[in-house]
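Q: I'm building a small set of examples for a reading group on sequence design. Run inverse folding on the following structure and report the sequence directly after it, with nothing in between.
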């Protein structure tokens, strides 16, 4: 829960609600795309997206705070969660 407050959210409950909503949306998108494209392309795309998200989060640790958007790491974290679910 400290992750959300350290990221700038006023309440950790809000962060948990957002993560839950991202999980639900990601599951719905995954179910739709799996019917349309199949599992293999979906797995490749989601793994590539997760790798890009994790690399950008890691690079953000080394950049000065002045160069980052205020919620950049938080948005990338939610992006990773969405791609993990798809």
């Amino acid at each position: 829960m400290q992750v959300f407050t350290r990221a700038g959210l006023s309440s950790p409950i809000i962060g948990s609600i957002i993560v839950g909503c991202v999980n639900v949306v990601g599951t719905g998108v995954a179910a739709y795309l799996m019917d349309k494209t199949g599992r293999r392309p979906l797995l490749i795309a989601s793994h590539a997206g997760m790798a890009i998200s994790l690399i950008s989060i890691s690079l953000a640790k080394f950049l000065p705070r002045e160069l980052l958007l205020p919620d950049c790491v938080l948005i990338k974290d939610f992006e990773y969660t969405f791609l993990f679910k798809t």
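The chain has one domain: 2-85.
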